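> tool_call: predict_assembly(chains=two)
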Amino acid sequence: MKKEDLYREIGLIDVNLVEAAQHSGRMKKKRSISRRWAILVACLVLYSSTATLLLAKDYIKNQNTEPYIRYLTAESMELQSPVTEFDANKFFKALSSENNESIYIAINRLAETFNDSKLREKALHEIEPFVQDGNPKIADAAAFVTAILSKSYDSPYIIELADGSKIFTLFNNYSDYGSQNVIWRIQNNELEKYMSFTMPSMYITDIIPSPNKKLIAVVTNSNKSDFVEVINVEEGMTSPELIESARVKYGAQKQFDMWIRTDHENYSSLTSIAWEDNDTLKFEASLPYEDMSIIETVTVAYQFSTRVMEVSY
Amino acid sequence: MEDQGIVHLYIQRSQQALIETKLKYGAYCKSIVRNILSNPSDIDECENDTYLAAWNAIPPNMPRKLSVFLGRIARNIALDKYGYNTAKKRNREFEVILTELEECLASSNTVEKEYEAAEIANLINQFLYKVDEQSRNLFIRRYWYSDSIEELTVRFQMSSSKAKSMLFRTRNKLKVHLNQEGVQL
């Protein structure tokens, strides 16, 4: 047994003993403060503030000699302050542009005015005319953003979950591959970026809620591969990526030669996906092995609560 | 807010439970974690992880004493983090506490037996109920709350040498007790 294990075992001792020790020993007593003590305390405060100042100076000096970086961000590597804040005026201005691409981007970005009532009203007023626009992509985006900003939420792109929160992506189907790689969430009347997916996922193709709306299956892709994750938004829990997990599991079963690429592209694809019940997601996937010389189409069933995956041919 | 009220909020899955926990037990959890870790970012992370773990644990768990329940979680999370940190970043005070506990373990050439979780804890419980109250509280403050010797001297109004010698004697007695119970750690 290691010393850490013994320390951990001590953590399990009787609750009553721990609680008794919590209040054991000398208790702090309130005492009246005499003038002499007050002067002494004042001197100590003066001394400690001077000492703190000197320590802080020393700390900053040491920080420079021995740097400690906890999280290395893109901004810190560029020695820049954080990226500039959301600038709504830039997008309002773009609405009057002649460029359809700028208008489309501006309409989608103005959904981010949701948390500011004045800006939200203004955005709603200025976006509404685009609902009748001759360009179907712009009209579609305008109808969608209007549904968010007016809080009517009557859009097929918005999913209401069991906890009452709403989730969606912006820039819906902007590419042949899918939507912007960010899930947004409105909870307690506040819009927030809920999550995005790391590379190689580039687009969100589909968000499929479970029948009881407690879980969502999110399909993402990268032009080359499809990926699926199941997320419990309310609890903030997610499954592992399921297609690659199925590929590894099935490959091991069949003893196929299998490599995992450093770019994590698996060249697998999803052919159909649906919830079997409130907890089980079922999908078909084509999984490549041995440098794509073998492609196996399998059926995968994944139970979120038990984290059990079954892969069958 | 009373502990019962806070637990009730957890059962209702109200996020207010986390706010109330932080208000009532934030400083307490932090003090336990601070005795194990030294990095401020680690301490904040462990404090937040404690609330998340409590959120995930209640229900189904129903803590008898919420403070001890939270303290136990905070202690385990901090210990995991401590093991993960590199030697350079470790808290030296806590390293001393672990080294003291090493004295209760058998020498490295003894064949180790696997013990069930909490099996040793039950034996330590038996032992602690046998020793006198002051030794017991001193031991728990040192090895459960991870108090420093200075903190113990202030709390129990004794010299540091007395605190150290009392802890030394209690550790030796514990080792004998565990041996008598047939445990070779």
